[in-house]
Design brief:
The structure holds 2 protein chains of 2 kinds. In chain A, the strands form 5 sheets. In chain A, strands 11-10-12-13-15-14-21 form a 7-stranded mixed β-sheet, with helices on both faces. A 6-stranded mixed β-sheet of chain A has the order 3-4-2-5-6-7, sandwiched between helices. In chain A, strands 18-20-19-22-23 form a 5-stranded mixed β-sheet, with helices on both faces. Helices cover 38% and strands 18% of the residues of chain A. Chain A is globular and about 90 Å long. In chain A, strand 10, helix 8 and strand 11 form a beta-alpha-beta unit. Chain A contains 19 helices and 23 strands. By secondary structure, chain A is α/β, with parallel strands linked by helices. By secondary structure, chain B is α/β, with parallel strands linked by helices. Chain B starts with 37 loop residues before the first helix and ends with a helix. In chain B, strand 5 and strand 6 form a beta hairpin. Classes of the chains: A alpha/beta, B alpha/beta. Chains A and B meet through strand 9, helix 7, strand 11, helix 9 and helix 10 of A and strand 2, helix 3, helix 5, helix 10 and helix 11 of B.
């Protein structure tokens, strides 16, 4: 293989519950701490112990934090999947495996270089305890890789110290012993480093490696959320775990009293009810969930839309339909979130692309929910929520002030002449004033999911019912000016003061597809195909999205679901004709790879459908 | 939830409570339930109790689900915020609302369909969390708004208006609540205001979940012969076990009422509920004996009423959460966000 310094992908095939996650995380962190941008994706089973699991690490000095679609080095530690893993190696790549049990007869490929290290044998010789042997075998392959990839041993040792802390300092020594077993053997028997290896740079300064559920939880806490209700569901669970952890640290007073209330509900039906109850009282409240949870919450979401109660829902999407593949990623809930609930309903949705944006959109969601008095969705996914991403360090905008929306105070109510009327439209933006329970006798009204007039009174009157529904539509229209604008990048630089000339074709995508599409666009550009780029950040679609669609003859719509949900929404909401929107879909549960996008665009253009 | 606005008429002769309000100030819209509906009597008892306790009306939050019973919050306390949740889900609204703002009185009005069928899970879990609220089940054994299907509280052998006999055993909210560790369990009858009003008062002052299951006949679909939730049947098999008098902290204890010895129980806010055993057999502070007592009388087809179990030591949702005093309504504004982010991110570098 040719030299591939700081530009290759390794994949580690292991058995879950054996401590491989810690070993892989150690490996990724070590590369990051050597200053080289790195991507890590964990493909884990819906299981606690004994099933196959993979970890993919892309070392990418160019900063392509997405799957390339290649496997340059496979660490095949799982006998059960060995054959498949071996077959997956890109020609010219390497196989590292545990040669305690040689597989000479199976290793028939002449385009793969095999590196056998007797990991089990060495580890069993060194450690007596059965569990320790299992754990250390994984740490030993980190040592082998350290030799092959030229990883900095000081960085590995520091990382272990950071992981185990002072309390478990003894473990650092044991782990280092295991690392050295792999390292020494490999150095002795093979030419190290390989042509593909890591060289120290300084490109990770000012960055962190963090998952999007942790960042969303931080966003919720700093936005001032006080009530969280949830029902455990993969892959959203770690969001509430993180919220709890940080609130216990930063929201508990000296007497041990909590300035927050987290309720683990009996089901998602109750979790969303609790959020709406807290929102009715005026608190900032949220629930993290995934697709099946949103399905259960639909009735209350419809209620919240019609009664105009603020609520924030985080949907960490996983593979559906039904239980689907709970530990794999997809963007299969786009339509479900946008139109959740019976009757005419539509909801503000925010679509973060990475953990940094999950943090910012979490904060934004609380403001939008209170400003528009409605349920707001942060539509994230397993890839963003549970994988560790390299992102710029999170920073707080010191000028941020929470937007609590149009809420009448006790003084304002005291001065009110006549009765308070809940569902008027005094500012002609579709947003009525609300009052909170317990504030003032004049503020009282009945929040009802049944038909109501603009005065908040029960009605079955045709005109009165319709008037409220039309205002709700107006309110949603107003939201177009308040939700985050799309990220647009044009292939041609804009001439001074003028809008750049649009390319003939454009690419439009959403959420976690971002990184893959960006890499594909760069590659396409280098091959002579220039495409403008638009990433939708919110629903309702803003004017910028509509303009982008109008400007391009063909727009490739890249998304991770089977039914082209985003494309469908664009057609319905913007009246763009079907033939101008060309789908690029990926929905097998793995995060989309840049090569998938690149190949799809090229094959479409090659078919000569666009001159 | 339909209602007709009721003109507020003030009569100078009407007595005023400590806030200077007459009972009229605690009323709501005009009921649109059927004439003679038990639910309207319960509404009247609620109005009476809130007036007697001199609760500021706007410091009450009224909540309900779906069904005839769930319409009634529109008929009392017009100065209080109300919410009419989705079917069977009022307990979750109450839980979230109480989590956010513990400084209000929470009154949840539900029915047997709402609480014992579609909302049985939420009902149970609100008890388990000990949400500080008064929870009334207006229990008529029938689905009224959909015209006469049996509910889960229908007794075996009870006959529907169209003749069908119920053969499935009923779910008893009182036994359910007892088994879930509820600290205030009562049963009453919409036709016995004398018993119901003090129970409501005590339930409002009890810290934690207070359940009152009120037999409340449906005159349209379940008041015929053969029904075990009719006025006639309830009166015939009515078995008051305990009479409760609610006493404000400073008021004098009134003259003995009923038979048996008075048993004062002090509520957390210093007020007292004086229980008088009508049936000397029953001890409302002993859970296992309360079970046995209820079981015995159930077998005799008797409808045991009164405050059947009380336990004032329970910790409510906020005690269990170790919440700060006051409400959690205002968003908690951190002042040192970047310092927090710095500290948190140290381990992610």
């Amino acid at each position: 293989m040719s030299r591939r310094v700081n530009d290759f992908t390794l994949k580690l095939a292991t058995v879950n519950g054996t401590g491989s996650a810690s070993a892989n995380s150690l490996l990724m962190k070590a590369i990051f701490r050597m200053g080289v941008p790195v991507m890590g994706k964990n493909y884990f089973p819906s299981n606690i112990q004994g099933l196959p699991t993979w970890y993919e690490i892309r070392v990418t000095e160019a900063g392509y934090l997405t799957r390339s679609g290649r496997v340059d080095l496979m660490v095949a530690m799982n006998p059960e999947t060995f054959g498949k893993d071996y077959a997956e190696i890109t020609p010219g790549g390497y196989l590292l495996y545990d040669s305690t049990w040689p597989r000479t007869r199976e290793l028939t490929r002449d385009d793969v270089q095999v590196i056998g290290v007797p990991l089990a044998e060495m580890v069993n010789h060194q450690f007596a305890d059965a569990r320790t042997r299992i754990l250390m075998k994984n740490i030993a392959y980190v040592g082998a890789l350290a030799a092959l990839l030229d990883l900095d041993m000081d960085v590995i040792e520091d990382s272990l110290k950071k992981t185990f802390g002072k309390k478990k300092a003894k473990l650092v020594d044991a782990n280092m012993q295991a690392v050295k077993l792999g390292l020494d053997y490999t150095r002795e028997h093979y030419d190290c480093p390989l042509p593909l290896h890591v060289e120290r740079t300084d490109l990770t300064e000012g960055h962190v490696i963090i998952d999007g559920n942790t960042t969303a939880a931080l966003g919720a806490m700093l936005a001032g959320a006080t009530v969280g209700a949830w029902y455990p569901i993969t892959p959203s669970t770690s969001l509430m775990d993180a919220f709890k952890k940080y609130c216990e640290k930063y929201r508990t007073n000296a007497d041990g009293q909590r300035e927050f209330c987290i309720i683990q509900a009996e089901d998602e039906l109750a979790a969303i009810g609790m959020v709406m109850g807290a929102g009715w009282m005026g608190a900032r409240a949220f629930t993290p969930t995934s697709g099946p949870g949103i399905s259960l919450m639909n009735e209350f979401i419809s209620f919240g839309y019609y009664t105009e109660l603020p609520a924030v829902l985080f949907d960490i999407q996983r593979v559906g339909p039904s239980t689907g593949m709970p530990t794999r990623t997809q963007q299969g809930d786009l339509t479900e979130c946008a139109y959740a609930g019976h009757g005419d309903t539509r909801h503000i949705c925010l679509y973060p692309a990475d953990p940094g944006e999950a943090f910012r959109f979490a904060v934004r969601a609380f403001d939008l929910a209170e400003h528009f008095q409605t349920p707001v969705f942060v539509v994230s996914d397993l890839d963003i929520g549970m994988n560790e991403w390299m992102v710029p360090e999170l920073k707080w905008d010191e000028d941020y002030r929470p937007n609590r929306g149009k809420v009448l105070s006790a003084d304002q109510l005291e001065q009110l002449t006549g009765r308070f009327e809940r569902y008027l439209d005094p500012d002609n933006d579709g947003i009525p004033f609300r009052t909170l329970p317990g504030v003032h006798p004049k503020g009282a009204f009945f929040t009802r999911g049944s038909g109501h007039s603009k005065h908040g009174i029960y009605t079955e009157d045709a005109a009165e019912y319709q008037e409220v529904m039309d205002r709700l539509k107006r309110k949603f229209h107003t939201a177009r000016r308040h939700v985050p604008a799309p990220m647009i990048e044009r292939a041609h630089a804009s001439a001074s003061g003028k809008t750049a000339r649009a390319t003939r074709c454009g690419v439009l995508t959403i959420g976690s597809c971002d990184v893959a599409v960006r890499e594909a666009l760069k590659k396409l550009k280098s091959e002579g195909t220039e495409l403008d780029y638009c990433r939708v950040c919110a629903f309702p679609f803003t004017e910028e999205v509509e303009r982008f669609l109008k400007e391009h003859e063909i727009v490739f719509v890249v998304e991770q679901n089977r039914d082209a949900q985003l494309r469908g929404m664009l057609m319905v909401e913007t009246e763009t004709s079907a033939e101008r929107l060309v789908s690029i879909l990926h929905y097998n549960g793995l995060p989309i790879a840049s090569s998938h996008v690149e190949n799809a665009v090229l094959s479409y253009l090659d078919r000569g459908q666009v001159a | 939830m339909s209602h007709i606005a009721k003109p507020v008429a003030h009569h100078s002769a009407l007595p005023k409570n400590a806030l200077g309000y007459t009972v009229r100030d605690y009323e709501g819209g005009m009921s649109t339930l059927c004439a003679g509906c038990g639910h309207d009597s319960i509404t009247a008892a609620l109005i009476q109790a809130c007036w007697q306790l001199a609760i500021e009306p706007h410091k009450v939050a009224k909540m309900s689900g779906i069904g005839c019973s769930s319409k009634t919050p529109a008929y009392f306390l017009r100065q209080a915020h109300g919410i009419n949740a989705v079917h069977g889900r009022m307990p979750s609204i109450a839980t979230g609302a109480n989590a956010a703002n513990r400084e209000l009185y929470y009154i949840g009005v539900s029915g047997d369909g709402d609480s014992l069928s579609i909302g049985f899970g939420q009902f149970a879990h609100a008890i388990r969390r000990n949400v500080d609220m008064l929870y009334l089940i207006e229990n008529n054994g029938v689905y009224g708004l959909t015209k006469g299907q049996f509910s889960a509280s229908a007794d075996i052998g009870s006959r529907a208006k169209k003749g069908e006999i119920n053969e499935q055993p009923p779910i008893d909210p009182v036994l359910t609540a007892l088994s879930l560790g509820c600290g205030f369990v009562a049963r009453s009858f919409s036709g016995d205001k004398e018993q119901l009003v003090p129970l409501i008062e005590a339930g409002l002052r009890h810290r934690g979940f207070a359940l009152i299951d009120v037999v409340s006949p449906c005159v349209a679909f379940n008041d015929h012969e053969g029904s075990t939730k009719s006025y006639a049947h309830t009166r015939e098999f009515y078995h008051p076990a305990i009479h409760a008098d609610f006493i404000e902290p400073k008021a004098e204890i009134r003259t003995a009422y009923g038979r048996g010895k008075p048993m004062p129980v002090t509520l957390h806010d210093g007020s007292t509920i004086v229980l008088r055993k009508i049936d000397v057999d029953h001890d409302p502070t002993d859970r296992s004996r309360a079970f046995a007592y209820l079981e015995r009388h159930r077998e005799a087809n008797e409808i045991v009423t009164g405050l059947l179990y009380i336990e004032e030591e329970g910790r409510d949702l906020h005690a269990l959460n170790h919440s700060v005093p006051g409400t959690l309504v205002s968003a908690r504004e951190h002042t040192d966000q970047n310092a927090i982010l710095d500290e948190v991110q140290a381990r992610y570098r």
